Amino acid sequence: MSDDGLERIWTPHRMAYVRTAVDDEGCPLCAIPGHPDGESLVVARGEVAYAVLNLHPYNPGHLMVLPYRHVADLADLTPEESGELMSMTQQALRTIRAVSRPDSFNVGLNLGRAAGGSLADHLHQHVVPRWTGDANFITVVGGTKTLPQLLEDTRALLADAWPGAPR
Predict the structure, then answer these.
(1) Residue 98: which CATH number?
(2) What global pTM score does this model have?
(3) Catalytic residue at 124?
(4) Total number of domains in the chain
(5) Which residue has the higher pLDDT, 137 or 65?
């Protein structure tokens, strides 16, 4: 606890988000592909979509699959974007299973701000690995989520296991 009474948590992985926000005054999800994969936490790139670790993960390995194109609504995706979004989501499930062996997954889209989409203007599908008991004592009572690994290390593990992904 500091002199001002505030508890501080060191989160160096957030610098990638801060840099993206400064570099691009528009959509941070549109800016991510323009940065090196290791810096921007890109796990894999396709022709019209890519997979990137979430900077605010619910659990280790929480990533998002999204089109490169700035589009908000699922109904507005091209057939190519829809197909690659789904095939990359399936590959994300296979890769995370191989690397982390979760018990289950949450996979989904928040379409619009009222649905919980914090970056609602750029469609992105969440892939969240889940383990029995992952909402433990510190999360439930302390309101704090612990992550056992730096995002850069998680990204490297997933990218190495993803067939054809950048290293």
Answers:
(1) 3.30.428.10
(2) 0.76
(3) yes
(4) 1
(5) 65
